[in-house]
Amino acid sequence: MARDTLTGSRIRERRMIAGLRQADLARQVGISASYLNLIEHNRRRIGGKLLVNIATELGVEPSMLTEGAEAALIATLKEAAADAGAVAAEVDRAEEFAGRFPGWAEVLAQEHRRAGGLERTVETLSDRLTHDPHLAASLHEVLSTAAAIRSTASILAETGELEPEWRDRFHRNINQDAERLAESSKALVTYLDESDSSEERRGVPLEEAEAFIAAQGHHFPALEAGGAVGDQKLSGLSSSAAQTIAREMLSIYLADARAMPLADFMAAVERHGIDPLTLSREFHVDMPAVFRRLASLPQGALPQDVGLVVCDASGSILFRKSIPGFALPRYGESCPLWPLFTALNRPLVPIRRRVSQLGRTAGEFDCLAVSWPQEMPGFDRDPVYRSIMLILPVPAAQTGGEDAQPVGSSCRVCPRDACGARREPSILSQGF
Hints:
Layout: H1 7-18, H2 22-29, H3 33-40, H4 48-58, H5 62-66, H6 70-83, H7 94-100, H8 102-131, H9 133-158, H10 164-197, H11 205-215, H12 221-224, H13 240-259, H14 262-272, H15 276-283, H16 287-295, E1 307-312, E2 317-321, H17 339-342, E3 351-357, E4 364-373, E5 385-393, E6 405-407
Helix pairs in contact: 2-3, 6-7, 6-8, 7-8, 9-10, 11-13, 14-15, 15-16
GO molecular function, one term: DNA binding
Keywords: DNA-binding, Transcription, Transcription regulation
Domain HTH cro/C1-type: 11-65
């Protein structure tokens, strides 16, 4: 039986879970118990206001009654089959499997989600342990202090009689180093605890500024209305360096908003869609400005989320707006196959590539990139380039093509072995 004809069965199941009698639910939604009985036995179709009223009384979304949990379950099963790689799975029979063996289907889906979560954890921890500057500095402090204590203690233990003055001096050194070690260890534990419970990484000015921008949804209505950067409250930024970086980001935002007013820009997007080249010509701005403007629109303004990454000529990430399914390393070196870095070899030439990021939640994305000189160089100076990449998710109905370039997030957590751009072996075991 098709899923859309099982609405009544789902209503009955939800009613029984809620502990409601058939007569009670019928009275609450204003129909007779006999009519509800026909609905629950799939003998009467249901929709519109009655469906909404029943869903409200049962405390669920209407889609849970019309589609059930099977839709999400089947989608997860198909995703697990796609990630299996060489293992052949009967994808066209996923609905039958979920219907005949719902328990086993849920077990498989749960294990797939768990494996995906573990992979993301490995990516985060590897990236952080390798490249987090605050963590590296804290560990260096702890190890240096421990080495100093050991050196002083060995002198006291291995040397014979010492002058009282020197012995007291060594004792004072051990006491001071021990206090310093205790403080360093406490600070390190506090940093790890705060970092595990929050997405905001304190201690690195660029990360603080990014967290501030993200907390505002990458959109600032006051600046859209013509406000000044100095009037913007930089709440949550603890260091002057982070505040300086945030003000620079807001100055760029304000310049883009003045060049492309929100109402006019949204109207242009309605006419042309997400076409950066056409938009840049209409507003007489460069393409990086259009990329930034698209990434700073209010939530829901576009039919899809967009991501944004900016780097300099060294490959260092200067700004990032993440998007689900496309992993952006927080600290480490990113995948050199990203169009973001390819654009650095072809300044001022727009590049568009469809990529597929490897992993349990692999998705396809259209990546648009361009690099440009920060300022006009002199005859005796080389230009300083930056590169920007707009990340657009590809609808599921359009994925699966052979032209998508496989990319990773970074080499340490990329499962693709046969890659000419690999810098170091992956820490992921085969098949993880």
